[in-house]
Amino acid sequence: MLIKRKRGWEIAENRVTPEGAYLKRRELVRAMGLGTAALAVPGIAAAQGQDPSAGLYPAKRNDRYGVPTPMTAERQATTYNNFYEFGTDKSIWRDAQKLEVRPWTIKISGMVEKPFEIGFDDLLAKVQLEERVYRHRCVETWSMIVPWTGFPVRSLVELAKPLGSAKYVVMKTLMKPSVMFEQKDTLYPWPYTEGLAIDEAMNDLAFIATGLYGKPMPKQNGAPLRLVAPWKYGFKNVKSIVSVEFTDKRPVVFWEKLQSSEYGFWANVNPQVPHPRWSQATEKPLGSNDRIPTLLYNGYGEFVAGLYADRKAEKLFM
Ligand code: MTE
User: What is the distance in A from the centroid of ligand 1 to the CA of 83?
Assistant: First the structure.
Protein backbone atom coordinates (compact mmCIF):
# COMPACT_ATOMS: atom_id res chain seq x y z
CA MET A 1 0.00 0.00 0.00
CA LEU A 2 1.37 3.41 -0.96
CA ILE A 3 1.04 5.71 2.02
CA LYS A 4 2.43 9.23 1.68
CA ARG A 5 1.80 10.51 5.18
CA LYS A 6 1.51 8.77 8.52
CA ARG A 7 -2.09 7.77 9.18
CA GLY A 8 -3.88 7.10 12.44
CA TRP A 9 -3.62 3.35 12.16
CA GLU A 10 0.11 3.42 11.54
CA ILE A 11 1.11 4.74 14.93
CA ALA A 12 0.00 3.49 18.30
CA GLU A 13 -2.29 6.21 19.57
CA ASN A 14 -0.63 6.12 22.97
CA ARG A 15 2.59 7.18 21.22
CA VAL A 16 0.95 9.95 19.24
CA THR A 17 -1.07 11.82 21.82
CA PRO A 18 -0.57 10.78 25.41
CA GLU A 19 -3.91 11.40 27.05
CA GLY A 20 -2.37 13.78 29.60
CA ALA A 21 -0.98 15.94 26.80
CA TYR A 22 -4.29 15.82 24.97
CA LEU A 23 -6.19 16.93 28.06
CA LYS A 24 -3.65 19.70 28.68
CA ARG A 25 -4.27 20.92 25.14
CA ARG A 26 -7.99 21.07 25.86
CA GLU A 27 -7.34 23.02 29.04
CA LEU A 28 -5.18 25.39 27.02
CA VAL A 29 -7.92 25.88 24.46
CA ARG A 30 -10.31 26.63 27.28
CA ALA A 31 -7.88 29.01 29.00
CA MET A 32 -7.58 30.90 25.74
CA GLY A 33 -11.32 31.41 25.88
CA LEU A 34 -11.93 29.55 22.65
CA GLY A 35 -15.37 28.03 22.45
CA THR A 36 -15.77 27.57 26.18
CA ALA A 37 -19.54 27.19 25.99
CA ALA A 38 -19.41 24.80 23.06
CA LEU A 39 -16.89 22.66 24.91
CA ALA A 40 -19.16 22.21 27.87
CA VAL A 41 -20.42 18.66 28.25
CA PRO A 42 -23.69 19.90 29.84
CA GLY A 43 -24.72 20.91 26.27
CA ILE A 44 -24.55 17.24 25.33
CA ALA A 45 -26.55 16.28 28.41
CA ALA A 46 -29.28 18.71 27.34
CA ALA A 47 -29.44 17.11 23.87
CA GLN A 48 -29.72 13.69 25.51
CA GLY A 49 -32.62 15.01 27.62
CA GLN A 50 -34.48 16.01 24.43
CA ASP A 51 -34.00 12.58 22.84
CA PRO A 52 -37.42 10.95 22.21
CA SER A 53 -36.26 7.83 24.06
CA ALA A 54 -35.00 9.76 27.14
CA GLY A 55 -37.87 8.41 29.29
CA LEU A 56 -36.52 4.85 28.95
CA TYR A 57 -33.37 5.72 30.92
CA PRO A 58 -31.95 4.77 33.34
CA ALA A 59 -32.75 1.07 32.99
CA LYS A 60 -32.42 -1.57 35.69
CA ARG A 61 -28.86 -2.82 36.12
CA ASN A 62 -28.00 -6.44 35.32
CA ASP A 63 -24.91 -7.39 37.36
CA ARG A 64 -24.63 -10.98 36.11
CA TYR A 65 -21.25 -10.20 34.54
CA GLY A 66 -19.96 -8.31 37.55
CA VAL A 67 -19.66 -4.61 38.22
CA PRO A 68 -16.00 -3.79 37.59
CA THR A 69 -14.47 -0.73 39.25
CA PRO A 70 -13.37 2.00 39.22
CA MET A 71 -15.94 3.49 36.86
CA THR A 72 -14.48 5.91 34.30
CA ALA A 73 -15.65 9.50 34.72
CA GLU A 74 -18.49 10.30 32.31
CA ARG A 75 -16.63 13.34 31.05
CA GLN A 76 -13.62 11.21 30.13
CA ALA A 77 -15.62 8.56 28.27
CA THR A 78 -17.61 11.15 26.34
CA THR A 79 -14.77 13.47 25.32
CA TYR A 80 -12.05 10.95 24.41
CA ASN A 81 -13.36 8.89 21.51
CA ASN A 82 -12.52 6.91 18.43
CA PHE A 83 -14.98 7.73 15.65
CA TYR A 84 -12.89 8.02 12.49
CA GLU A 85 -15.84 9.25 10.44
CA PHE A 86 -15.42 12.56 12.31
CA GLY A 87 -11.63 12.66 12.29
CA THR A 88 -8.66 10.62 13.34
CA ASP A 89 -7.90 12.21 16.72
CA LYS A 90 -9.72 11.70 20.01
CA SER A 91 -11.41 15.08 20.22
CA ILE A 92 -14.23 14.49 17.72
CA TRP A 93 -17.06 14.85 20.23
CA ARG A 94 -18.00 18.35 19.18
CA ASP A 95 -18.13 17.54 15.44
CA ALA A 96 -20.15 14.42 16.20
CA GLN A 97 -23.00 16.60 17.54
CA LYS A 98 -23.87 17.33 13.89
CA LEU A 99 -25.03 13.75 13.41
CA GLU A 100 -28.85 13.57 13.13
CA VAL A 101 -30.10 10.45 14.93
CA ARG A 102 -33.82 10.77 14.07
CA PRO A 103 -35.36 9.45 11.96
CA TRP A 104 -33.07 6.41 12.11
CA THR A 105 -33.77 3.23 10.19
CA ILE A 106 -31.98 -0.10 10.50
CA LYS A 107 -32.03 -2.43 7.51
CA ILE A 108 -32.11 -6.18 8.22
CA SER A 109 -31.01 -8.15 5.17
CA GLY A 110 -29.19 -11.15 3.71
CA MET A 111 -29.88 -14.68 4.88
CA VAL A 112 -33.07 -14.01 6.83
CA GLU A 113 -36.61 -15.34 6.46
CA LYS A 114 -37.77 -11.94 5.17
CA PRO A 115 -35.65 -8.78 4.89
CA PHE A 116 -37.15 -5.69 6.55
CA GLU A 117 -36.41 -2.20 7.83
CA ILE A 118 -37.21 -1.00 11.32
CA GLY A 119 -37.16 2.46 12.87
CA PHE A 120 -34.93 2.81 15.92
CA ASP A 121 -37.80 3.74 18.27
CA ASP A 122 -39.87 0.78 16.98
CA LEU A 123 -36.89 -1.46 17.73
CA LEU A 124 -36.64 -0.02 21.26
CA ALA A 125 -40.31 -0.93 21.81
CA LYS A 126 -39.56 -4.58 21.01
CA VAL A 127 -36.64 -5.12 23.39
CA GLN A 128 -36.01 -5.00 27.12
CA LEU A 129 -33.42 -2.37 28.08
CA GLU A 130 -30.98 -3.06 30.90
CA GLU A 131 -27.75 -1.54 32.17
CA ARG A 132 -24.43 -3.40 32.22
CA VAL A 133 -21.10 -2.16 33.49
CA TYR A 134 -18.43 -3.49 31.15
CA ARG A 135 -14.69 -3.14 30.75
CA HIS A 136 -13.64 -1.73 27.35
CA ARG A 137 -10.13 -2.35 26.02
CA CYS A 138 -8.98 -0.43 22.95
CA VAL A 139 -6.33 -2.07 20.76
CA GLU A 140 -4.32 1.16 21.25
CA THR A 141 -3.95 0.15 24.95
CA TRP A 142 -6.28 2.63 26.66
CA SER A 143 -9.25 1.25 28.55
CA MET A 144 -12.37 2.32 30.41
CA ILE A 145 -15.17 0.94 32.57
CA VAL A 146 -18.58 2.34 31.69
CA PRO A 147 -22.28 1.62 32.25
CA TRP A 148 -23.95 0.86 28.91
CA THR A 149 -27.71 0.60 28.53
CA GLY A 150 -29.08 -1.64 25.83
CA PHE A 151 -30.15 -5.19 25.04
CA PRO A 152 -28.43 -8.46 24.09
CA VAL A 153 -27.47 -8.81 20.40
CA ARG A 154 -29.40 -12.07 20.66
CA SER A 155 -32.69 -10.11 20.85
CA LEU A 156 -31.85 -8.46 17.53
CA VAL A 157 -30.89 -11.80 15.94
CA GLU A 158 -34.18 -13.32 17.09
CA LEU A 159 -36.14 -10.41 15.61
CA ALA A 160 -34.25 -10.77 12.32
CA LYS A 161 -34.99 -14.51 12.01
CA PRO A 162 -31.83 -15.63 10.18
CA LEU A 163 -31.81 -18.79 8.12
CA GLY A 164 -30.12 -21.84 9.67
CA SER A 165 -27.37 -21.53 7.06
CA ALA A 166 -26.31 -18.00 8.17
CA LYS A 167 -22.98 -18.05 9.99
CA TYR A 168 -22.10 -14.38 10.55
CA VAL A 169 -23.85 -11.13 11.32
CA VAL A 170 -22.34 -8.04 9.70
CA MET A 171 -23.06 -4.53 10.99
CA LYS A 172 -22.37 -1.24 9.24
CA THR A 173 -22.23 2.40 10.24
CA LEU A 174 -24.26 5.13 8.52
CA MET A 175 -22.65 6.54 5.37
CA LYS A 176 -23.09 10.33 5.31
CA PRO A 177 -19.99 12.12 4.02
CA SER A 178 -21.69 15.54 4.25
CA VAL A 179 -21.63 15.22 8.05
CA MET A 180 -19.15 12.39 8.61
CA PHE A 181 -16.62 14.31 6.56
CA GLU A 182 -13.76 11.81 6.92
CA GLN A 183 -15.85 9.45 4.74
CA LYS A 184 -14.75 11.64 1.82
CA ASP A 185 -11.26 10.19 2.30
CA THR A 186 -11.31 7.26 -0.12
CA LEU A 187 -8.23 5.69 1.44
CA TYR A 188 -10.55 4.18 4.05
CA PRO A 189 -12.94 1.34 3.14
CA TRP A 190 -16.14 3.10 4.27
CA PRO A 191 -18.67 2.39 5.61
CA TYR A 192 -17.17 1.15 8.90
CA THR A 193 -18.05 -2.54 8.95
CA GLU A 194 -17.75 -5.12 11.70
CA GLY A 195 -19.21 -8.50 12.46
CA LEU A 196 -19.60 -11.44 14.77
CA ALA A 197 -20.01 -15.16 14.18
CA ILE A 198 -23.62 -16.12 14.95
CA ASP A 199 -22.64 -18.07 18.07
CA GLU A 200 -20.74 -15.03 19.36
CA ALA A 201 -23.77 -12.85 18.64
CA MET A 202 -26.01 -15.27 20.54
CA ASN A 203 -23.69 -15.21 23.58
CA ASP A 204 -25.45 -13.19 26.26
CA LEU A 205 -22.43 -10.93 26.80
CA ALA A 206 -22.73 -9.48 23.26
CA PHE A 207 -24.69 -6.27 23.65
CA ILE A 208 -26.31 -3.55 21.53
CA ALA A 209 -25.87 -0.34 23.49
CA THR A 210 -28.35 2.48 23.09
CA GLY A 211 -27.36 4.47 26.16
CA LEU A 212 -24.46 5.40 28.40
CA TYR A 213 -24.38 6.57 32.03
CA GLY A 214 -28.15 6.13 32.32
CA LYS A 215 -28.98 8.40 29.36
CA PRO A 216 -29.47 7.97 25.60
CA MET A 217 -26.20 7.30 23.78
CA PRO A 218 -24.09 10.43 23.15
CA LYS A 219 -23.49 10.91 19.43
CA GLN A 220 -19.72 10.67 19.80
CA ASN A 221 -20.12 7.26 21.44
CA GLY A 222 -22.17 5.86 18.55
CA ALA A 223 -25.78 7.04 18.83
CA PRO A 224 -28.36 5.79 18.46
CA LEU A 225 -27.09 2.19 18.65
CA ARG A 226 -23.69 0.48 18.63
CA LEU A 227 -22.22 -2.91 19.27
CA VAL A 228 -20.43 -3.74 22.56
CA ALA A 229 -18.50 -7.03 22.64
CA PRO A 230 -16.40 -6.46 25.77
CA TRP A 231 -14.10 -9.48 25.40
CA LYS A 232 -12.82 -8.11 22.08
CA TYR A 233 -10.71 -5.08 21.21
CA GLY A 234 -12.78 -1.94 21.07
CA PHE A 235 -12.61 -1.59 17.28
CA LYS A 236 -15.15 -4.43 16.98
CA ASN A 237 -17.76 -2.18 18.58
CA VAL A 238 -19.18 -0.57 15.43
CA LYS A 239 -21.05 2.67 16.08
CA SER A 240 -24.23 4.28 14.66
CA ILE A 241 -25.48 1.07 13.00
CA VAL A 242 -27.84 1.25 10.00
CA SER A 243 -27.35 -2.20 8.49
CA VAL A 244 -27.47 -5.70 9.96
CA GLU A 245 -26.81 -8.38 7.38
CA PHE A 246 -26.67 -12.17 7.79
CA THR A 247 -24.29 -14.17 5.63
CA ASP A 248 -22.50 -17.51 5.41
CA LYS A 249 -19.21 -15.83 4.44
CA ARG A 250 -16.89 -14.30 6.96
CA PRO A 251 -16.76 -10.56 6.22
CA VAL A 252 -13.52 -8.67 5.77
CA VAL A 253 -13.99 -5.95 8.34
CA PHE A 254 -12.89 -2.28 8.25
CA TRP A 255 -9.49 -2.46 9.93
CA GLU A 256 -8.71 -5.84 8.41
CA LYS A 257 -9.30 -4.38 4.95
CA LEU A 258 -7.01 -1.49 5.78
CA GLN A 259 -4.16 -3.44 7.39
CA SER A 260 -4.70 -7.19 7.48
CA SER A 261 -1.21 -7.80 8.89
CA GLU A 262 -2.28 -6.01 12.08
CA TYR A 263 -6.05 -6.41 12.47
CA GLY A 264 -8.27 -9.42 11.93
CA PHE A 265 -11.82 -10.60 12.35
CA TRP A 266 -11.75 -12.24 15.81
CA ALA A 267 -9.79 -9.59 17.74
CA ASN A 268 -10.17 -11.20 21.17
CA VAL A 269 -8.17 -9.45 23.90
CA ASN A 270 -5.01 -11.34 24.88
CA PRO A 271 -2.15 -9.74 26.83
CA GLN A 272 0.24 -12.46 25.60
CA VAL A 273 -0.22 -11.67 21.91
CA PRO A 274 1.40 -8.34 21.06
CA HIS A 275 0.19 -6.10 18.28
CA PRO A 276 2.95 -6.18 15.59
CA ARG A 277 4.05 -2.70 16.75
CA TRP A 278 3.36 -2.64 20.50
CA SER A 279 2.76 -4.82 23.55
CA GLN A 280 -0.77 -5.65 24.69
CA ALA A 281 0.38 -6.75 28.18
CA THR A 282 -0.87 -3.64 29.96
CA GLU A 283 -3.39 -0.85 29.53
CA LYS A 284 -3.94 2.69 30.74
CA PRO A 285 -7.41 3.37 32.17
CA LEU A 286 -8.77 6.73 30.96
CA GLY A 287 -8.19 9.33 33.65
CA SER A 288 -5.41 7.39 35.36
CA ASN A 289 -1.64 7.78 35.16
CA ASP A 290 -0.96 4.14 35.94
CA ARG A 291 -0.86 1.14 33.68
CA ILE A 292 -2.60 -2.05 34.81
CA PRO A 293 -2.29 -5.63 33.52
CA THR A 294 -4.57 -6.55 30.63
CA LEU A 295 -6.70 -9.67 31.15
CA LEU A 296 -7.27 -12.55 28.72
CA TYR A 297 -10.62 -11.96 26.98
CA ASN A 298 -10.59 -8.66 28.89
CA GLY A 299 -11.58 -10.65 32.02
CA TYR A 300 -14.64 -12.31 30.43
CA GLY A 301 -13.08 -15.71 29.66
CA GLU A 302 -15.47 -17.70 31.84
CA PHE A 303 -18.36 -16.53 29.65
CA VAL A 304 -16.79 -16.66 26.19
CA ALA A 305 -13.68 -18.89 26.05
CA GLY A 306 -15.86 -21.87 25.09
CA LEU A 307 -16.78 -20.13 21.83
CA TYR A 308 -13.22 -20.69 20.59
CA ALA A 309 -12.59 -24.30 21.67
CA ASP A 310 -13.07 -25.52 18.08
CA ARG A 311 -11.43 -22.49 16.46
CA LYS A 312 -7.86 -22.96 17.67
CA ALA A 313 -6.50 -22.84 14.11
CA GLU A 314 -7.84 -19.28 13.64
CA LYS A 315 -6.00 -16.06 14.45
CA LEU A 316 -8.19 -15.49 17.48
CA PHE A 317 -6.22 -12.64 19.05
CA MET A 318 -5.66 -10.14 16.27
N1 MTE B 1 -17.20 2.72 14.93
C2 MTE B 1 -17.12 3.56 13.89
N3 MTE B 1 -18.16 3.66 13.06
N4 MTE B 1 -16.01 4.30 13.63
C5 MTE B 1 -14.90 4.20 14.43
O6 MTE B 1 -13.89 4.88 14.17
N7 MTE B 1 -13.86 3.15 16.38
C8 MTE B 1 -13.81 1.92 17.16
C9 MTE B 1 -15.16 1.61 17.82
N10 MTE B 1 -16.25 1.79 16.86
C11 MTE B 1 -14.94 3.32 15.55
C12 MTE B 1 -16.14 2.62 15.79
C13 MTE B 1 -12.77 1.94 18.18
S14 MTE B 1 -11.17 1.78 17.61
C15 MTE B 1 -13.05 2.01 19.51
S16 MTE B 1 -11.83 1.82 20.66
C17 MTE B 1 -14.40 2.30 19.98
O18 MTE B 1 -15.33 2.50 18.93
C19 MTE B 1 -14.38 3.56 20.83
O20 MTE B 1 -15.62 3.78 21.42
P21 MTE B 1 -15.85 5.07 22.32
O22 MTE B 1 -15.46 6.26 21.52
O23 MTE B 1 -17.30 5.05 22.70
O24 MTE B 1 -14.96 4.89 23.53
Answer: 5
